[in-house]
Amino acid sequence: MTHGLDTAEDCMRCLAVLGEPQRLRILRALADGEQTAGELSERLGVRQNTLSHHMRQLREHGLVEVRRHPHDERFTFYRLNGRRLRALSDVLTEWAARAETAWEPSGRRSS
């Protein structure tokens, strides 16, 4: 089952991207809803060029989506890609379930 992730390597790359604390802060902020780059920068106390670097990584791995303001292309809006995050969550949930069933309550691996 792929969960919307192409390969196990794809899943691991997403997890590696999320291993950076600043990116997790960005995702947590976006959980409150769509925000502009300026709003995120101010909210997180991060310079625009630093934010841009992290957003590029999050976009390339499909964790956030982007859109331009329909009347003013200078404004970029970011939001979480819920489908991608759910797919990643599904993979982790599956791994956890497999791990739980692989071990007996005594702590020994089942056969």
Automatic annotation (TrEMBL):
| CDD domains, per the entry | HTH_ARSR
Please state every residue range assigned to the domain named HTH arsR-type.
5-100
Keywords (alphabetical) are: DNA-binding, Transcription, Transcription regulation
Stretches assigned to the HTH hxlR-type domain: 8-104
Tell me if Transcription regulation is a UniProt keyword of this record: yes
Return the NCBIfam families for the record: HTH_metalloreg (NF033788)
Q: What is the protein's name according to its record?
A: Metalloregulator ArsR/SmtB family transcription factor
